[in-house]
């Protein structure tokens, strides 16, 4: 069984291909009470990530996928030093796929971009890669508000993406696939890479096994999680359970 956590609903874009292609058994935790992680300190993000992982392990998962780019950028080493289970981060898998290109642009939250996690990891696979990074802090709130096809989102995207000439663009936030069509319209000749697709290409497929059972937990407002989450997962899903991590 796979344990997956994200700061909110964005990580649903990561588990979507796991469900569609492998019928994986998954326990998903959305830390909606403390979203967003992108403007938090490294210490706080590590604390939250450890609490999230501890909850999932108590549920009996075999390994962890950190579906939050910010947590994957800042907390993955601390998690591996704390827990004795396989832990995968979306930054590593996405960076590995992106490293096949020589010219790369990365967009993400302020914390992800300032961590330089993508730049450092891509350079590990391809030291000659030319990498440009841009923080796009307004994308997450616009997506969370459901303004996916709104004119204001298109205006903001044009502002953020102006002047990018890279061969490929890394969506360094799990929310961003929902506006992939908006981004592609602005950068029609650019290859776009997202975390969910990258993950299934870089982790041993034998680990993605099961009957397709998925359990959802949220740390705040399960009803709102379900309402927004269906846009990320592409369909309605079963009940979301409320959990208080501080009581564990």
From TrEMBL:
* Recorded name of the encoding gene: murI
Family from the record: Belongs to the aspartate/glutamate racemases family.
Biological function? Provides the (R)-glutamate required for cell wall biosynthesis.
Organism field? Desulfurella amilsii
Enzyme active site: 68, 173
Spell out the protein name for this chain: Glutamate racemase
The record's listing under Pfam families reads: Asp_Glu_race
Q: What is the lineage of its organism?
A: Bacteria, Pseudomonadati, Campylobacterota, Desulfurellia, Desulfurellales
Q: Which reaction does it catalyse?
A: L-glutamate = D-glutamate
A biological process (GO) annotation for this entry?
Answer: regulation of cell shape
Residues recorded as binding substrate, renumbered to this chain, are 6-7, 37-38, 69-70, 174-175
* InterPro entries linked to this entry: Asp/Glu/hydantoin_racemase, Asp/Glu_race, Asp/Glu_racemase_AS_1, Asp/Glu_racemase_AS_2, Glu_race
Tell me which positions the record assigns to the signal sequence. Answer: none
Per the UniProt record, which EC number(s) apply here? 5.1.1.3
Q: In which pathway does it act?
A: Cell wall biogenesis; peptidoglycan biosynthesis
Highest taxon, organism lineage: Bacteria
What keywords sit in the KW lines? Cell shape, Cell wall biogenesis/degradation, Isomerase, Peptidoglycan synthesis
